[in-house]
Structure formats: structure tokens, C-alpha cells
Amino acid sequence: MARYELHRVGNNGVWAITLPADALHHGDFYKMYVSWADGSGERLPAYATRVVQDPVSHLFAAQVWAPEPYAWQVTDFKPDTKPLLIYECHIGMAQEREGVGTYTEFRDKVLPRIHADGYNAIQIMAIQEHPYYGSFGYHVSNFFAASSRFGTPEELKSLIDTAHSMGIAVIMDIVHSHAVKNELEGLGRLDGSYDLYFYGDGRREHPAWDSLCFDYGKNEVIHFLLSNCKYWLEEYHFDGFRFDGVTSMLYYNHGLGQAFGSYDDYYNGGQDTNAITYLTLANKLIHTVNPEAITIAEEMSGMPGLAIPQKDGGIGFDYRMAMGIPDYWIKTLKEKKDEDWHPTSIFWELTNRRSDEKTISYVESHDQALVGDKTVIFRLIDEKMYWHMMKDDDDMTVARGIALHKMIRLVTASTINGGYLNFMGNEFGHPEWIDFPREGNGWSYKYARRQWDLVDRKELKYCYLNDFDNAMVKLIAGVYNFQSLPVVKLWEKDSDQVLAFRRGDLAFVFNFNPSKSFSGYGVLAPAGSYEVVLTTDNPAFGGYGNVDEAVVHHTESDPLYTPLGVEWLRLYLPARSAQVLRLRRSSAGKGTKTAKEAKPVKEAKVPGASKAKTATKAKVAKEAAPKAKAAKAATGSASKTAAKSAPKSAAKAAPKASAKAKK
User: Fold this and answer.
1) Is 400 left (phi over 0), alpha (psi -120 to 50) or beta?
2) Does 616 have pLDDT greater than 60?
3) Distance between CA atoms of 229 and 45, rounded to whole angstroms?
4) What is the Cα–Cα distance from 481 to 477, expressed in whole angstroms?
5) What angle separates helix 343-351 from helix 324-335, to the nearest 10 degrees?
6) Using one digit for the tens of pLDDT, what is the confidence trace for 410-453?
7) Catalytic residue flag (residue 298)
8) Which of 298, 299, 496, 537 is catalytic?
9) 252-279 pLDDT, tens per residue?
10) How do 359-362 and 319-321 pair as beta strands?
11) Which long-range contacts (CB under 8 A, 24 or more apart) does 16-24 make?
């Protein structure tokens, strides 16, 4: 075993050595042995680019890695951010088998799924080397080393290269907010001292994360972290970063136990100006190295200026995570009855953001799936997912869950002003939770994987959710710059639980009412003809087929609203359903049904509706709609109103409705 002595360079903790070219060889393992005043110990270099764990001793060692340079196939990739549609993922738990997945398995088995799903970016977690697999990659030990438990650097590069060939950007979840305490393989006491990279006082240890906090006031620390950003961009061709734990960096108290209720809370002297300086420099560097790079801040306090360009005085992130949205949905599902879901509250939460900052909206990320919490689908259906997900099973709890799962995702995705994020598997309602192997579960991988067979089995209802998600993503991605189109509210009425808004030529209409379907419901919209382009009620998505997608809906003029350029768009709104309509710019082509040609629909069950009342499906257009047969599981009646816009309750329709259109 060869030994070489390093020499101190200055008094700032830097040591260096120059070796002959043949001293080290590809695949060699190496460590540092550091001596200090009152002790000594083995350490790994801070800039080690590959670190491997011994399968027997479980100790980590740095490894010389100098193979033939990887030959990139895609060299000029530019991310599609109009809009940005992110698929959050984890390499190790992406596989069906119980075990740790690899970069190659992800490239060959999972990337094709993501591409087929229509997402144009992946956000990969746990890339930086971390000694404890169960930390989800957040306790980083070796900042320049891609985790070797998933494979080699070349295999990671091949994954990224393949993603680029599919038009998929690759965003790295980077952790610069803290570091693991480990000393043998991490930065903790690298030279025997406590304050080389970290604070040397009471701020050294993070009070909630059992980790160490960087001292961003040291130039050497800033250089280390900035070099880290540059390295991942240039060496691996990552397209940007999601910075983890930004709130913890911004405040001396890490934002713990603090309510941010006014702007005074952002400028009270509790802000870590050194950390803010680092984040500003990081964004400047990243966008200098790659002007097309994407930077996202995971930040929950709402710090002003975080996602504003530096030329305008901001810190320079491209996006911030809309972390209040998943919290809102969880609170709604846990605390509110279906009858208390108010469209005014939903719309306000989804659009409550600063106009000069772009956000990433999402229903749930990996956070909501971790053990101790529940995914949205599991909150909706719970243990019935184990027994009632066959397509021929009419369990009403499952029907409710599937209907709301689609509506929640659609209303969230359709109100984005920057991007939309989905965590791996949630697009098809992956059951249960995430629990990495640990002593408490017998080191099991059972819940640290993805059960892709569930969505592949066409006899199960999971494919309904997946197919809807595909259609939703395709619709949004098909509108260039969708995220920049104004979100214009058309209608909201809490007593009916109906919400409508438009973006460009698309009108989004939601009926969150669990028991009332509405016939001829009036929504004020730009004049013209509208055709349905997506509905949650489509049988292909687990719906009941109560919305006839072949009908063209013509608006009705009203002198009262003519000066405003809007007319009444009257629709049939089944309970717990949503539909998206496109304003047509040309006359109807052959084969398109109008109100006069439309036939009554067959009977259909409506999930959650009252059996005592009936509902019809109306063919709504410029002419009065024909009445349909009463629905088997019917809806409640709508409250009366004297206004011209009052919807006709489906409950008022005659049980034996005539097929003739009323004139």
C-alpha cells in the first residue's frame, strides 16, 4: 500500500499533492490519513468524484475513476419549459423488484414510461453519495460523487444522454443546505477541527435534521459549493437543480416554528445574508455555465425576490416550489366533508402567488408518500385499494376516490404559472407509502419500490388514472406557453360547488358537488362554439359517460353581458366531474353532432349521488337541450335562483324524458 504526503497551502485549510502519472490507476481505492493536535483518523477527500462502499466491512473508500471519456450522443440539448412538466423520481426505488435499482435499469425500464406519459423533465433525487440509503439522499457525505450504489458514472451519463434523446430534461435534486455528520466518509471534522466547512458554534448542528450546517461566510465553503454546481453541469450534463432546504438556509432559525404572516417577517434581521449571497452567486454561476439551465427553490416561507431575475434585484431562481398546495389538499382531505369543498377557496389557493415569480405546482411529491404520511389516493380510498380495484367492482368509495383524484390533479395542473410536478407512480395512484429499509421494518425493500405491474394490468382501475394523467399532460403540453396564459375566472359558486376558468381557448369547468348534477348550467364565457376535449367522466378514465363529447356547445347571447363580450355557455355537469372545452375557431365539420342531432344518453350511475332523485344528461348548445333518461343513481336537486344564469337541477328532469328537443 503506497503512502504519499500532502503539503499545506496557506492557512485556510487547503492541502495539495502532485503525483507521477503512473502512481494511481483506474479502479484504485484510496483514503487520506489526517493527523491533528490531539488525534488522527482516516478521511475521504472532499472533492472525491467516486466513493464506493465495501460490501463486507461497509466502510467507504474513494476510488480512482479514469475510464475512456464518455461519448455523448446529444450535445446541444435545450429543455422545454413552456410548460415545464416534471416527473420526480428516485433511481433506487424505481424498480419493481425488492432491492436497489440501477441507473441502467432506470434508463431501460422507467424512462420509456416517463416519455410515454408525456413529461418533459425528470427530477432525480439522491444522486450525491450518501452513506445511509434510508435518508432519501438528504444526508450527503460526498458532494462530487454520484452514488455508486446505483452504478457507474458512465451509466448515469448514459441515462441522462438517453433522456435528452427523448426530449426529457434532467434536473438534479442538489443538497447544499446541510451535510451528514459522518466523519470517516463525510466532511465532518475533515481535518480534526469542528469548523472547517461548518459553523464552529451553536449553529453547527441543525436542530431538526441531525446534520451539520455550512458556514456560508467562508470563501472556501462558497468556492466548494459553487464548484459543485459547475461540476454536475459540465461533467454529467444535468440541466439544472432543485435546491433542497432553501428555507433552512435563508434564516438563522432555519424557519422552524416561525409563522410568516407579513413582510416584516422577511426583513427582521433573522435572515442569513451569507446564505443569501451564496444562493445568488450559485444562480449566477449556473446560468453563466448554461443559460438554459433550470433552478428551482424548495422554499416554504415565501421569501420575496427568491424567484426573480438578478437584474431585477432577485436571488435568481427560475422557479419556486408551490409548497402550500399539497398542504392545502391534505388539509382538505383530512378535515373537510365533500359538501364543504368550496371552489372559491380552491381557486384562491391554486392562484395565490406573486405575478413576477414562477412556481412549480403539485398535488403531492415524495414528501407526502413517506412512511407516516399518506398519498392522496390512499387518503381517498385507503384499505379498499387492496380489494376493490378490479374494473368490474362498483365499490363507491373507490369510485369517489378515482373521481376526486382526477379532479384534484386537473385543477392543480391547469392553474400553473410555471410548471407542474408529479412523483413517480402517483400518476396512476400507486398504493401505500414509501418506507426505505431500516431496522424498524426488518431492512425490508417491500415499500421502497414501484409496483408497475398494477398499471400494466388492464383489468385493474389503475390504468384509468394513468390514462387520464396522460391525456391531461398531453393537453397542457400541446398548448405552447400554456403556463403564461392568464387564468381568467369564468364562474364560481360555492353553494353549487362549481368552478370555471379559462386559459386561452380552453375552458375548464369543475363540479365538485358530491350529489348534484346540473343540466343547462350557465357559465359566462367568450362567445362561440365549444367542443369537449377532455372530461374526467369519460369511461376510458373510469367515468360514467354522462358527458357526450361529440356535442358542440354554442353560447347564448344575453344583452346584459354583450358589452363585456361574453355569453352563456350552458353545460351538463355531472356530480364530481370536470371537463375541458376548446373554443372553436371554425365551423363544425362533418360528423360533429349539434344539439338538434344529439340523442339521449343511456342510463349511467353517478358516484356518491342520492338514490332518491334523478339526473339527466343534457345536450346543451345554442338550442334548448333534449332531456335524457333518468340516471340510475340520481342526484339531488339544485337550489332555486331567480337569476337568468340559474342552472336547471338534474333532479327536476322528468323520469320519462322525451327525446324531442324543447323549442
Assistant:
1) alpha
2) no
3) 18
4) 8
5) 160
6) 999 999 999 999 999 999 999 988 999 999 999 999 999 999 99
7) yes
8) 298
9) 999 999 999 999 999 999 999 999 999 9
10) parallel
11) 24/64
Return the minimum-mean-pLDDT range out of 19-28, 59-68, 171-180, 649-658. Answer: 649-658
Burial class (CB in 10 A: 0-12, 13-18, 19+), 571: buried
C-alpha cell at 322: 408551490
180: helix, strand or coil: coil
Question: Catalytic site residue 244?
Answer: yes
Strand order in the sheet with 552-554: 488-493, 498-503, 506-511, 577-584, 529-535, 552-554
In three-state secondary structure terms, 39 is strand
* Average pLDDT score over residue span 499-508: 98
CA distance 179 to 213: 7
At residue 601's C-alpha, the angle toward residues 414 and 407, to 5°, is: 20
Q: Name the nearest CA neighbour of 136 among 422, 431, 425, 438.
A: 438
CA separation for the pair 441, 535 (Å, rounded): 42
Which of 351, 354, 278 lies closest to 316, judged by CA? Answer: 278
Q: Which three cell numbers stand for residue 362?
A: 403539485
Q: Which neighbouring-strand residues pair with 146?
A: 128
The pTM of this model reads 0.89
- Could you give the CA distance from residue 360 to residue 250 in angstroms, rounded to a whole number? 20
Which of these is catalytic: 244, 272, 548, 556? 244
Q: What integer best gives the mean pLDDT of the chain?
A: 89
